[in-house]
User: Fold these one by one.
Assistant:
Number 1:
Amino acid sequence: MLQCDACGQALSSEPAARRNVRRAPLGRQHRCPLCSAVSSGCDELHRHIETAHPGPPDGTGSDLAEGLSECPFCGEAAGRQLEAHVRARHGHLLGASGTDTGNGGQLYECPMCSLTCTNIQILEEHVELHLEEHNISEGGNMKDLELAQRLQSEEDKWQRSEEEKREKEEFKKLQRQYGLDNSGGYKQQFLKNMEREVNRGRMQPFEYHKRKADMMECLAFGVDDGKTKTSGIIEALCKYYKNENKDVRHVWLSAGVDHFHSSLGDRGWGCGYRNFQMLLSSLLQNSLYNDCLRDAALIPSIPKIQSMIEDAWREGFDPHGASHFNNSLRGSKAWIGACEIYSLLTSLRIKCQIIDFHKPTGPGGTHPRLFEWVLRYYSADSEGGAKVVCTSKPPIYLQHQGHSRTVIGIEEKKNKTLCLLLFDPGCSSQEMQKLLKQNSDATSLKALRKFVGSLKEKQYQIVAVDGVLSLEEKAARCCASQVLTSERIP
């Protein structure tokens, strides 16, 4: 708190002291309220304050004791007691008389703050304090920078570690999803699921041992046990469409094909193998392929199909795809797709091609070009305007992310819309056998029919069979599969 020597009034701040000096009465000596200087009049005191104690430009400066927290002479923290500290410790620097600065009245102002000194040596010492403080601050900044860099380095290292952990977890997840986690294959899953059925009371122990023995015998011979097979569906569909006249204008059906669904041994991952069994069941009924398939007169089991794909890889087909599976499928639950089906068929000298519908070609993420391609495939060799055409064309392998099915025909409605007919390995024998009944109706076909709006995956691939390869053509396709390509639509 400041006190005016002229009137004795207590003053709250430096600006208040300035204003009070201007109003002070004349005719007596006045002591500066900010230092020990004495003046003979208000004007002289006012000039002293303006010169020795300049305030901020807007006249709103704070009190000396409130505006500073460290002594400008020694740097000691003084807080609100700064003025008392300066008077007690550095009073000699402020000048004893106030009217005489001791150097002819000359004052020296600090270039780094607003302090005015009466002696050049004192000013130099004061400025050195500023420089020391600046150096300390610079050193602190360097330490802060080093600390920040070290913390950032540690943060980057931690993030890389976490990213590596996430990548490993994702890789393990994909391995589990695609059956590459060394958790066993068809046989192990078959036995494990039967044991679960026994523990739940759904299977008797004697049935468990009988089915185990049958399964082991089929695996030893490399043939499918036929327990998931349904035959005669194409023939039943021909009869159905000839009698059904509501909304179907034309229908084209593939050559005869058996339906195979997943079993206890491949549930959740075996759709690709089951669709190959369906395709093969149709080719075995066509004499054109007898020479190619003389070593596969029976439908192979899933472990046998895995072995056949490995044989194709050893011949040199699709080395890039083989490396994805570490050149091994047997004893795993590995998913297969269009590339593996192509390699296997080509290794058997069966002519086929991969068509890649790599993006939607219709509104709402639909694929009308896929439906149009299937229509041309089945209707290319048909003549006349027969409503029902049972072609000699093999079924088509249809793949999308996570699942595959078999196209066995296509409908054209009276309003010109198209509808695919699909065999799904996820559909049970009980459902498929409903199609064999004489009184089957449109409800039974619901499991087969897929309209354009029903197929909305981002990408589809098909493998279509079209004849037999010579040995030379097979060798050429093997070389070409070093970089396996497909026909892309659009």
Number 2:
Amino acid sequence: MPQLNPNPWFFMMLTTWVVFSLMFQPKLLPHTPTNHPSNKTQAPSKTTPWSWPWI
């Protein structure tokens, strides 16, 4: 079963993963998120019971 033999593809997958992580990690790490989480507390919502007209 050739798919269980890691020799032909494992080194290539590992090399590709290392190259991509070395290329993209420095580009992605300096970005800051645009939507910062707010520190406001959520006010509990006041729910009213639904009046079903057909009951």
Number 3:
Amino acid sequence: MRQKTDKIYGELLSRVRVGSMTVDDIKLLEQRKITIDSSLSYHDRLQEVCNYIEKLPLDTVCLVPTCKQCDIINSVMTNKIFSEEIIFKAHDYIDCPKSLKKKACDTLIKIEEDASRSAGLAGIIVIKIGAKVMLRQNIDVTLGLVNGAVGTVISISKSIDGSKIQGVNVDFGSGKVNTIERAKVKFQLLERAFVIREQFPLCLSFAVTIHKSQGLSLKILLLKQAIVFLMLVKYMLLFLGLQNLKDYYLINFDPHSVKANLLAIEEFNRLRKIYRSDLPPIPVSSIRWHKVWDLIWAVDENSVEIITKTLKKSCEKLLVLRGIENSDCISSGLNSVI
């Protein structure tokens, strides 16, 4: 339904869905790639990505496949803001038998940074005045204060004596400032162990994971109002993230990684033959596209060195592989495999 006005793109997604991309599909998607100089250092590449993000409209959300990449972009973008960090620590109360108290506390520490396991409320939130944040709960649908609403932190509200932060004042694009107060949720840690948490239902939103975006009321996904980065294409993450091609830009695009489960397609065709014989079977492509190595931009410097050394070592092993000589008297590893 989303692509009914763009037949070419709709058909492209239908082929991506079953892992049967054509040369034209790849060329079309590659037109959406942002060019970054691969000779730059890791830090310079990361800065170039974030500089591009900084120029985009407020309601732009960058979709990335991993939490690690999400944290890196949010961290770098927040550091670009010249204001003091504001730290919100959750108020937690553990409700469990005394015998489970220690185990429950240890479990809570382990999931401290995983808001998905704590009803969307993080244990610690670090923001700045001017940072872009996302609402993690539905507060008032009539005012547009819904899960996924993106806005800018304008200020904070403190108690009369200034000892306690009572609210975060956010402009969600309407020009009107809304005060977001702490929300209270209850979630389960272990069997017979629960946590009652009070925390501001906010998170940095320069980037979010593709999976998280599927459950959010993002304007960008509904109204197609901005550009979205899809940093890394792995399997069907491409199909989940792409909805309107002209609003999307890619940094890494590897056609080799766009795959579909062949057993699922076979089962689909079996059922279609039985119940919808009027429809043609889904074609299964045997083409394996050339591997395009990802541009490294969102990993630690140490990891970059390890990956580089690993690739170098792998290539050295490949180069010394011996096989039957070709007609030009050069030994070929491919002939050895054959």
